[in-house]
Design a protein that fits this description.
Helix 9 runs antiparallel to helix 10 and helix 14 runs antiparallel to helix 16. This protein has 24 helices and five strands. The protein starts with 11 loop residues before the first strand and ends with a helix. The strands form two sheets. The protein has a three-stranded mixed β-sheet, with no helix packed on it. It is mostly helical.
Length: about 650
Amino acid sequence: MSEFVLGPHNGLHINGTKPRRPKRRKNKDPLAIPTLESPKPSKSTPVAPLQPCKPAVPSEVHSPPPRKAATMIESEHWSLRQTETGSFEVNINSINNITDFLQTLSLMASESEDPTADPLHKDEVHSETSQDSEGSASKKNGRKLTMPFINFHSELYAQQDKNSTVEWPRMKTALPALLDDCVHYHLQCMNPYYPVRPRRILMNWYSGLEEPTKDPLVLAISTYFVRHIFIHHMPPAFDKIRDMRVLDAVQTQLALYTREALSDCFDVAHPHHIYALCLYNMNSKVPNHLKAFYHTIAVRMALELQIVPRKRNQSNSTAMDDEIELNNRLWWYLFQIDHFLTESEIISCSILQPTSDDHAALSKLERPSPCSLDEPDEVTGSHLWSNVLKIWLIRRRLEKEIEELDADDTIAMSLMSDKVEREISIWNNELPDIFQQDVALKPENFDTMAQMCFTIGIERCTNRILLHRLFFPAVDEMDNLTHLQHRSAIYAVESVVELLSMRRAVIDIACCQTWPGDLKRAIEMLMICVTFRDTTVMTRSKLGLMRALRLLRQMPETEWKEDMCISNIARIENVLSSWPESPSTTETPRSMSRASMDSTMFSPPMANSCPRYTPLIGGELYMADNQPPMFMPDLSADALAFLDSNLANC
């Protein structure tokens, strides 16, 4: 079904001059909105991923076929009128009835997706399916199924829908102090990475609030960051509380407070409300269908306030530049949410203008840059953020190019693999000096530059992993890796290992920067590579899992028994426990010598086109790994023998 945004621009009218938050019905899930029973589950974005779609921006709601229009459930709570242009005008009597109206549309969509309802439609679907199965689209989809799926790139804790039903008695009395700590540490730990609003502005604003416990932005910051606070910066009042059940209860209650505060101001456009909606969308207590809904509200507010990205070479007075830059940063932060929701298929396509996939238009925009209101660490953070966005845009562009290729065209795929390495190398060479390893890791610069240098390196490894996974074989083709697939798997595993080492180096500098979500993605990649019937890839993957296991066991989240870390540890231990029972490997058949093959279709990139990371991997970053592993059991004699026999292949 098509996706649209409801509003006056397309005929939706809600009676009343000051609509307010509807009364919630009692439900087992405190964050669930009231819904009607549906005969079958409906997805929030049922648009096929391979079909191009237009952004869901203000547009008309086109009328469905007459047969479907007749099935609209009549109700006294709303009315529909078809205009002369063929669109519908919707009048909803009260804000209390909008949820039931949306659910009715969902029921209609579920019926329209049933191919048996209309024989003609069934024939069309069968015809389209037959054509797709014969074309390259099915091959692209097959590659996509092998990807590790992580919902949100920048989320601290990605597990969702774990809303506690237990109330913590001290919540109300401890709330003011807890909000103070959350805002303080958010400015201290996150603003150096994403200075959406400069620290001095937020501190002046926060100190002037009369009731912080009811402000949507304060509550959204706290909901997003409270897990980080409890695990890494435990407030003195809670020092003796180390119970994950209490933490879940506190975050669930904060999410409820945030939702109530946002619902009271959803019709009031303000930059702080947009920022609050973005932060609220990035925590694990919001169901996916609500993430799409809140994102739509944030985009609508940005349009109303004319918060748009900054164009290149746009310059005015300093004061005007600061205001334009702050709006520019807020738009790019909204872009990140749009980017995450689109990649997670929670929304079918970007609803921003320009869209998050329009690389040509986005390349003409000015990414976040320093302003006169920034403190020194925020100046560095703005450069870091800008280059992170830059590599995201490069990755999205390359992904679209890869998906357009025929997976069976070995030469084209090999050339694209070389292009991936070349593009990442160019991006890395264009980084400012403060992010270059040969500058930042010097003894005189290490204290001030190393952390950000490692952080930008983690982003490089992450995007390199996400790109090379597109060259992996389908699930039923893992027995015999081609030379290209073998090379991409090695690149991915090497990037994971380097990422783990740099994450460990960052933790040594700033112990709170653990980010389990990034580790989960890296571990998922190793879990895929360890299943390949290739001795070299499998061995390197298991060695990477050993490194990840050591890192996870030393993280504070593991002491708290955080679900993501505990589950990853259990999975890694299960894989390593099967060692040395290795699968029988089958070498890739080669009808020519390795040298002749490398010199023809699998020629490596030019000497300066691929980044060289070997000195760093063998040097400072890995020195910490020479320490005795904590809680790491000794390998058996059989495992050591297996390792010795395969290290030559590495």
